[in-house]
Specification:
The complex is a heterodimer. Chain A is about 0% helix and about 55% strand. Chain A is mostly beta strands. In chain A, the strands form two sheets. In chain A, strands 2, 4, 5, 9, 10 and 11 form a six-stranded mixed sheet that branches. In chain A, strands 1-3-8-7-6 form a five-stranded antiparallel sheet, with no helix packed on it. By secondary structure, chain B is mainly β. Helices cover about 0% and strands about 55% of the residues of chain B. Chain B is built from no helices and eleven strands. In chain B, a hairpin with a 6-residue loop joins strand 9 and strand 10. Chain B starts with a strand and ends with a strand. The chains are: A mainly beta, B mainly beta. Chains A and B meet through strand 5 and strand 10 of A and strand 5, strand 9 and strand 10 of B.
Chain lengths: ~110, ~110
């Protein structure tokens, strides 16, 4: 079964607005990662947050992690048309196991 | 680096035929992963290798699927015989064991008629 569940499944906003996507998971994790997938392409790693971190920033991306609630959020600020893609969270459950378990993804559409 | 290279990009075949998908990981990476992506089931891990050794093949759907990694720069995923339900996009990804991050190829879109 999928470890991560993204919410919402689809999100459509205007360019310039902020986009927030959420991810919930079921078991203890070593780290949580967010990936982006443009249509017809492979996934691209965006950011990794470790289980002992609560927040991380990378450019216009902000990720939070709440291990007590087993949830994470990805915030994209000042969205651009180029941000249109599917976004996936993925968890690594056991240190050293290397196995990423992906959620079903959030389809983000940025309207110009 | 050219990134993870998969071939072919598209494959159309008839039910019962053998299909071989190929992957060249990023040089220096020591882990390799095969995934399958469909609308219904999302992204599923099929098998992964560390240092060319298969570690977890629990995601391989059935005996018709097999994967090999004869050396650090090449891996294959074979389906024999193929069935229409195998139609999907198959991704290969490679990574560094120490960093946990995976780098994906562009995928092979397989259609089994």
């Amino acid at each position: 079964s999928q470890q991560g569940e993204e919410d919402p499944q689809a999100l459509s906003i205007q360019e310039g607005e902020n986009a927030t996507m959420n991810c919930s998971y079921k078991t203890s994790i070593n780290n949580l990662q967010w990936y982006r997938q443009n249509s017809g392409r492979g996934l691209v790693h965006l950011i990794l947050i470790r289980s002992n971190e609560r927040e991380k920033h990378s450019g216009r991306l902000r990720v939070t992690l709440d291990t007590s609630k087993k949830s994470s959020s990805l915030l994209i600020t000042a969205s651009r048309a180029a941000d249109t893609a599917s976004y996936f969270c993925a968890t690594v459950r056991i240190q050293g196991a290397q196995k990423l378990v992906f959620g079903q993804g959030t389809r983000l559409t940025i309207n110009p | 680096d050219a990134g993870v290279i998969q071939s072919p990009r598209h494959e159309v075949t008839e039910m019962g035929q053998e299909v071989t998908l190929r992957c060249k990981p990023i040089s220096g990476h020591n882990s390799l992963f095969w995934y399958r992506q469909t609308m219904m089931r999302g992204l599923e891990l099929l098998i992964y290798f560390n240092n060319n050794v298969p570690i977890d093949d629990s995601g391989m759907p059935e005996d018709r699927f097999s994967a090999k990694m004869p050396n650090a720069s090449f891996s294959t995923l074979k389906i024999q015989p193929s069935e229409p339900r195998d139609s999907a996009v198959y991704f290969c990804a490679s990574g560094d064991l120490a960093k946990n991050i995976q780098y994906f190829g562009a995928g092979t879109r397989l259609s089994v008629l």
